[in-house]
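Q: I'm teaching a short session on how sequence maps to structure, and I want students to see two examples side by side rather than one. Could you give me a first protein with its sequence written out and its structure tokens following it? Keep the formatting plain so it prints cleanly on a handout.
A: Of course. Example one:
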Amino acid sequence: MSGYKFRVVLVGWGAIGRRVADLLLQRGAPVAIVAVAVRDLAAVREGLGDVRVISDPNDLAGIEADLLVEAAGRGSVGPWCRAGLARGWDVAVSSTSALTDADLLAELTGLAQANGAQIIIPPGALGGIDALAAASRLGLSSVRHEVVKPALAWAGTPAEAVCDLGSLTEPRVFFEGTARQAADAYPQNANVAVISAIAGLGLDRTVVTLVADPGAVLNSHRIVAEGDFGKLSVVLENRPLAANPKSSEMTGLSLVRMIENRAGVIVI
């Protein structure tokens, strides 16, 4: 196995996909991106080099890989993860809002079980998910997840119907509900709500609050959980991804860590 590289199919060549590929290359990770899946083969894309570019899940039939990483948006999760799991590959889901669809989740889970594969949910922009998931083994009584982003990071979302994002002078809570509701309504901004929910109390018992803050520079998350284990409070302030302020730099870093853990000898 000397010289072996862990083989990855990357679905998506947007801001997150490019960042993941760049960091893996910069860090000299023993990883080979064997294919990149895109929506439009004719579009001009920089940085792909000699990597095979595909646009149809059926194209996976001629590819050998160890892991498929989805980073292309909610609509890509079903078709690409189905195809990867059917080949017996593990799949990592970045656009976790897709998993609020109970039928899709059940289908993907069944495929994973039938083919001896795993569905991996990286922590994304969050920290402390390992502790939250561990605490859930003993029992949780409550989990609350607050997401605060610069006001204009919510542009183009239903938040615009609740408040005038451009004229806010102080933080505004514009949504409070379950993790399922948050991820359904704000699939780009509130993917993380699905992660904290799956780690803890589930999609319908995790309370999510979304805040537009005109004074914020960073994307912040505060998770508070209580249960038989005690009390957990985690606060993160993440730098927005330069190419996509709706996401955080930590989202790409989390995927890099996950891939390197799968490829490495020591796993943290």
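Q: Perfect. Now a second example for contrast.
A: Example two:
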Amino acid sequence: MRLRLAVFAAFASALAATAVMAQSDVIAQREALMKEFGRATRPVGGMLRGGTPFDLAAVQSALDVYARNAKALVPLFPEGSGGGETEALPSIWQKKAEFDGLFDKFAADATAARAAITDEASFKAIFPGVIRTCGTCHDSFRKKS
């Protein structure tokens, strides 16, 4: 009987450790993708403010990052992967469909903008609408820093 309990306890401990490692892995993955969003946005943010010359290739590159990462992020927020050092709010899992929908919208908007932005004028008209979804998500689903 003691052997069974010891085996069960070892199995339960291993399972719990695996769950913690898997959780921290998705957190690390999503944080890396979010940081890539930030790196892609910095130069185009400068273009929007007029401090950096317009560069269509940089804009297209940022939009590609947005579309690719937005699609990749949806499965990286499984139930129970909040808390700890993450900035993810519980509202992500309380309103999961809305949260996932914002990533879907962001990917679709970025893809559409990639085709529609051809010059500085179209960039300044279209790009703010694409990144507005970022703000919506940050306002509702991210801890304020």
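Q: What should students look for in example two?
A: Point them to this: The mean pLDDT is 87. Also worth mentioning: Residues 117 and 123 are 5 Å apart (CA to CA).
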